[in-house]
Amino acid sequence: MVSDVHGNAEDLAKAGEGADALICLGDLVLFLDYADHSRGIFPDLFGVENADRLVELRTARRFDEARDLGRRLWAELDVDRETAIEAAVRRQYAELFAAFPTPTYATYGNVDIPRLWPEYAGPGTTVLDGQRVELGGLTFGFVGGGLCTPMRTPYEISDEEYAAKVEALGDVDVLCSHIPPDVPELTYDTVARRFERGSRALLDAIRRTRPRYALFGHVHQPLARRMRIAATECVNVGHFASAGRPFALEW
């Protein structure tokens, strides 16, 4: 199990060694590395100094100023925004999808671009979103993407649309999502010093259907990496980009 790969293709290529399957819970793309501001699409386009400023504004929750900075930088750049971002994402996807072992089961993160995945997912990679699959006698359900935030990342959807995908899964043994259930200990990032958005629909499903596991990522430095909700073990399997180690699920 990996999540929040954010460009770490080198470790991703080794993540499935010795396992029957690799499960990826999204966020393959690296737009900006908050630990190293020289890495990612943003600094490649606008330089490290502007990346430093953007991180400073976002960390201070000055999102309007961060968007103003972005708009000014894009206006000064002699290239279409969507074209430049898609070209950079495509380069990352080509490398990352090539690193997936067979079999891989994957869902989208909030910074991913779902419409591009069919072009890069090989025959050994199964993409699931609001869908189930049987693995080793257990039923795994997958819910991709994130909920709407001031960050406006590429794959954010409404609470209602997200809840519908959770509902479509029904009862599963392992509930796999990119974002965590809406529990303060699981959604608070101790380094960014803010709460990320968790899903109430996931929390309700955990309490109602009582899966063995609820596995997720998204929050890079959570207050709690794992906790139990009734009969369900909830585990943040990331942050793979920095740790480079997968979480092993055995039964």
Strands across the major sheet, in which order? 4-5-8-11-13-12
Tell me how many strands there are: 13
Give the biggest beta sheet. Answer: 6 strands, mixed
So what's the overall shape? globular
The CATH fourth-level homologous superfamily of the domain at 9-28 and 101-243: Metallo-dependent phosphatases
Average pLDDT over all residues: 95
The portion of residues forming beta strands comes to 15-25%
CATH architecture of the domain at 9-28 and 101-243: 4-Layer Sandwich
Order of SSEs: HEHHHHEHEEEEEHEHEEHEEEH
What's the end-to-end separation, in Å? 14 Å
* Residues in helix, %: 25-40%
User: How large, in whole angstroms, is the Cα Rg?
Assistant: 18 Å
How many helical elements?
10
What are the low-pLDDT stretches, counting only 5+ consecutive residues below 50? none
The CATH C-level class name of the domain at 9-28 and 101-243: Alpha Beta
CATH topology of the domain at 9-28 and 101-243: Purple Acid Phosphatase, chain A, domain 2
GO biological process, one term: cell wall modification
Pfam family, one: Metallophos
GO molecular function, one term: hydrolase activity
Domain Calcineurin-like phosphoesterase: 2-222
